Please model this.
Amino acid sequence: MRLKTLVAVLGVGAVVACAPVQSGPTNSGTDEKTGQLRVWLFDEVNRGPKEAVVKEAITEFQGKHSGVTVDVQYIQVASRAERFKAAFSDPKSAPDVAEFGNTDLAGYVSAGGFSELDLGSWSESKDLVPTILDTAKVDGKTYGVPWFVGVRALYYRTDVFTELGLKPPSTLDEIATTAREIRQKKPDMLGISAGGKYLFAALPFIWAQGGDLAKQDGGKYTATIDSAEAKAGVAKYTELIKDDICPPATCAGNGGDASVEQFRAGKAAMTIGGDFNRKSVDASSAAGKYGVVPLPGKTAGSIAPAFAGGNLLGVLKGTQRKTLSNEFVQLLASKKYQQKMYTAMGNLPTFSDVQKQVSDSDKFLEPFTKTLQAGTKFVPVTPAWAKIEAQTVVPTMIQEVVTGAKNVDTATADAAKTMNAAFTS
Amino acid sequence: MTAKGQGRTAFAYLVPALLVLGGLLAYPIYQLVLISVYDYGQEQVSGGAPLVFLGLGNYQKLLADQQFWTVLGQTVAFAAVCVVGTLLVGAFLAILATRVRTWVRMTLFLAALGAWSTPAVAGSTIWLFLFDANFGFVNEVLGIQGFSWTFDKWTAFGLVAAQVIWCSFPFVMVTLYAGIKAIPGEVLEAAALDGASAFRTAWSVTLPLLRPIILVVTIQSIIWDFKVFTQIYVMTGGGGIAGRNLVLNVYAYQQAFAASEYGLGAAIGVVMTVLLLVITLFYLRALKRSGEVL
Model:
């Protein structure tokens, strides 16, 4: 009898839920003009100035729209994936407007999280730098407004270079030779602090050789990391993580932050760092003893294409205040507030004229804006990329090469295989 | 009251416990198995894509993956080392605790409880600081500044194993100490009167009496160490250089959950559950054979 009851209980359970849960369609269709607008922005180490600018924008916005309040919640970057996944699954807990990283875009859009934006009616939008605006597009449709952009260049120690009579490298090949020479003469120093997990430092090497991670063909991505050009780039980058430049025991496990940290600690003569690393380097032992140049390309005078990182502002699909959300995005991402955000946080603007304006007034930014103007590149815009990044496919490939576990041919071939599996799944 | 009526009353008393167990154990496992037979990613969760029934597809994919077998082997070996280490250290200190003066024992217990109650993330981070290549206390003492403990596969595994042993030996020590203390003094006295040596007493009297407790702590340790996540994730930066320090739980997280492949992740979860169930069954049988009343 007890067994029968158990079977009956299990049976009922099986009928009630015979498939994993799915949440319903999130498009509400309503468009209210009053009430509370909920906004998610990223929390930062030093949030004060950002919060002040955002408050200013809110005051202006609330002044224009009576009966509207704006509620901002600052969310942690580290736990953003969980927060956004939860928001997409449950529209009631979701914000109307959110800041998000441009590498997350494709995944969020395919999860049905963000709605398409029509920027045609917004006059300022024509000044957005096209390659940066591209990072807000999936299949030609725009889902966000670039709020700021982050780009990396070559940091080097001016005192070390002067002492050794060196000049900053002018071609990609010279980075290795210069770095090797420095370590030979100063064995305590890393020639250049490169990291085995520092994807955004490795990508320019691949792009500069004419290679890429993947190519798009009729909406489908295919890995090209095993092409001859990409392999040349991988070889050039992994050459840096060798005992005579940046020993694997120190550098193979480093990501971007740890790589810059070596430079901050005064242990590296060069590193690849972003405009956003400036404040932390200025607060380190390398302060006042460093310069920045664009990461050189294959030929002298050229600039290696950099990765266009940055954050977007978008409107969530489940919002009940679409018009208000759009207007708030256009206000917070406007030239006026990007200028203010630059002053407050040092965030690089995404409008070409505002970029020029800030780099004219601040010489430090020149190598970065030059890099931006030379043309930037991006990772494949597909939800599969989030998967490839989570599975650490490219860092693993680099680490396999630098530890000698695999040669460049095998490592790139294996990475291409894993990437293609993700692209076709 | 008839026998049948008695049975009913007993069942009624058990219902609340059964409901709790069903809700907390059976239902999640049922969901886990269910998800593992679907292609279930973030798009499917938020309703952006239809559900596709895969049958055993996720399992086939998993079992065909060369890396899964490597990681499984590493996990088993790593857990074995941790279990043996934990038991040896725990048993040694438990015996020591029965032989020393009260204040020494108190100090030992306080230190062990400190290690036990340290959160895994904090413990791992502190160990990383201690073993830091350039600024770590250990390298300073050994005079090997610049030596990276986490770079080489084997030193990295060794370091993490040491940390796992450090935070799990207190349980073994406290349990065994209680077990040793519970052995009636007359038994030991009788052995002494019969002229048994200390070793003989330990081997033929203490050890058999401790057997059930040793079995419990062994199985507990196996289950814990097989499921290690935090220490590997924190100390080797998510699985070591080129993923060579991956264990099953970290692998499942990285390949499946972080990549939003919940179906595949659930399949790994089911495989782990089955493996651990087999170990538990083995444990129950071993208990039965040793004459324990279950």
Notes: The first helix of chain B runs from residue 3 to 36. The CA atoms of residues 197 and 238 of chain B lie 50 Å apart. The two ends of chain B are 28 Å apart (CA to CA).
